[in-house]
Amino acid sequence: MEKLGNLMFELANEDRLRILIRLQEKAIRLTQISNKLKLNMQETSRHLSRLSEAGLVSKDAEGRFRIQPFGEEILILLDGFEFLEKHRDYFNSHVLSELPPSFRYRIGELKTCVLSNDFFTSLHLTDNLIRRAEKYVWMISDQVLVSSKPFAKELIEKGTTKFRWILLEDLMPPPDFEPLPFVSGRMERKTLKKIDVAMAITEKEAQLAFRGTDGKMDFRTFSVVDPLPLNWCKELYEYYWTRAKIGRPKAMENW
Fold it and tell me: Which residues of the chain are in CATH 3.30.870.10 domains?
């Protein structure tokens, strides 16, 4: 633990982190680092010395400093810290503990996602996501998203987009809600006894929400557009899809 504490101490300095991130781009000399990061030469030299002692950077024969493979891996792990810290208030009221561990460890892949704290904005973003879908829409939720029904119906009738739904096994639809007519070959339905994440995913974007500490899904969503976090969402969906049971919620037997 002492070695870990020492490493965390070195990374706790903002200037050393900036140097490490800069060296991730390419190897450069001390004077270049000093100029680009607007640090004096003495400070830069001291920081580089500490990073070298920690095994994070090294100096080559031409006098250029470069990030070590160990440093590269540390920066990848720090993406998770950065993402969680950026959304500290959100994650103080939402839980990741029910996610598969392999996805929690990769939470840094969501670093570029943008959080919407407004329910109606999140709903609007999800509806637009469905409208823009071309190949497929994958959805998992513990509630029926009534507002998205017209857009889903239009795409299904066009015959251009395939839909997958994972819904709560004991989901209770809103009063007078009429499910879309089932179209074989274009729609697939499965259920789970427990759902801890809500997602709407297409071939090019996603909306993502986590369960609150109160056990409810408040649908404050993260918008996902970059390839890395989008792949995270798709892989998580596939994880749940392979474990879900073919069928429909008990209260929607006419679907």
Answer: 95-252
> pLDDT tens digits for 26-62?
999 999 999 988 999 999 999 999 999 999 999 998 9
- Side chain identity at residue 205, one-letter code: E
CATH of domain 2-77: 1.10.10.10
DSSP 174: P
Superfamily of 95-252 according to CATH? Endonuclease Chain A (3.30.870.10)
- Give the E-state strand segments of the chain in sequence order: 28-29, 57-59, 64-67, 114-115, 136-141, 162-168, 187-192, 197-202, 206-210, 222-224, 245-246
For the whole model, what pTM was predicted? 0.84
Cα 173 → chain centroid: 28
Strand 187-192 relative to strand 162-168: parallel, antiparallel, unpaired?
A: parallel
